[in-house]
Structure formats: C-alpha cells, structure tokens
Amino acid sequence: MNYKTFLKMLITLTTIAVLSAFVLSSVYNLTKEPIKKAQEQKQLEAISEVVTNFDNDPFAEKMIITTPDKKDKLEFYPARKDGNINSFAIKTYSNNGFGGRIDLIVGFYIDGAVKSFKLLKHGETPGLGSKADEPKFKNQFDGFNPNRHKFKVKQDGGEIDGITAATITSRAVIDAIQRAVDAYNNFNAGK
Q1: Residue 40 exposure: Cα atoms within 13 Å on the Cβ side
Q2: Following DSSP, what letter does each residue of the chain receive, concatenated?
C-alpha cells in the first residue's frame, strides 16, 4: 500500500468517525430531556401507587437521605395532603436479585410501616422473579413494620412468604426495603 492510498483511507475513516460522533451526540442531546421526563413520569406514577393520596409535588420536595454506614444515598419523597405529610416514598435498590440489581420505590405510612412498593427496574426471570410486583407477594407488606417484626422470608426465620421458586428475588426485595428503612431511621434520628 502506498502512502497516498493510506492517507486517503485515514482521511475517509477520520471523517466518518467525526460525522458519526456528531450525529450520535446530536441525537443524544435531542433525546436526553424527553427520556428524563419519561423516567420522572414513570417514577411519579410509582410514587402515586405506593403512598396515600397527596396534593403536593414530591419531586419539588425530594431529599437525599443516607444509610447509617453513609455508603448509600437514597431519594426521599414526602407525600402531603393539605400541607401535612401523610406518607412518604423512598427510591431504593438491592444488588442481590437473581438477575442483578433491583430498583424500587417503597411507600411508607407516617409511622414507618410499609404501605407498598413498585419495581422500577429489574433483570429477574420472567414468570418467577418478576412476580415480586404481583399483589399476592406485595399485599403482605401493607402495614408491615420492619422495625417491629422479623423482616425476612419464612425460609430464613422471618414472617414474609417468599415467591415460590424465586426466594432470591424475595430476599432482594426485602433487602431493598430494609435499606430504605435503615436510611429513614437514620434520617429520623437526625444523622
């Protein structure tokens, strides 16, 4: 290969790379805001599902709270009705799911008992671990206070019925909720 051929190939490839980078960055900039708004809408819908009725904007009042070990920062969303907090939601996660990380929003009554939760993102097995978002599993959390009960699956000596054939997912959901409870307790203690 002679020098001119090499130079032409180099210029052509560089031009293609620069144009591709420009197109990709343009598409990213065009879609960044709509994607962010869609994610916020999905999260607001999840908050609406897991807390008591509210008339405030939970995003405007969002706070960041930390776990006692200061390793995790979670999003805390107060739900207000007529100016008074009647429940709250915490965005939390667990890295212990069968398919890896599980992200969820957990709703709590004002006394700290769990109201409900909503899976936001997971890689659990369809038809097994994905059943964590079904009423049969979720409903047993309503009114359950992790500070007063054995917050583990029954196989581990706790009071929660795990999902059949998806104990790892059940444990991961409990782990995520416990992370939120610990962060809230830490926040409540003023730490």
Answers
A1: 11
A2: --HHHHHHHHHHHHHHHHHHHHHHHHHHHHHHHHHHHHHHHHHHHHHHHHS----S-TTTT-EEEE-TTS--EEEEEEEEETTEEEEEEEEEEEEEETTEEEEEEEEEETTS-EEEEEEEE--PPTTTGGGGGSHHHHGGGTT--TTTS--SBGGGTSSBPPPTT-HHHHHHHHHHHHHHHHHHHHHHTT-
pLDDT recorded at residue 58: 87
Bridge partners (DSSP) listed for residue 76 = 63, 90
Instruction: Answer yes or no: are the C-beta atoms of 117 and 106 closer than 8 Å.
Output: yes
pLDDT tens for 18-70 read 999 999 998 988 898 998 888 888 888 889 889 988 999 888 899 999 888 88
Region for 157 from its dihedrals, namely left if φ exceeds 0, alpha if ψ lies in -120 to 50, beta otherwise: left
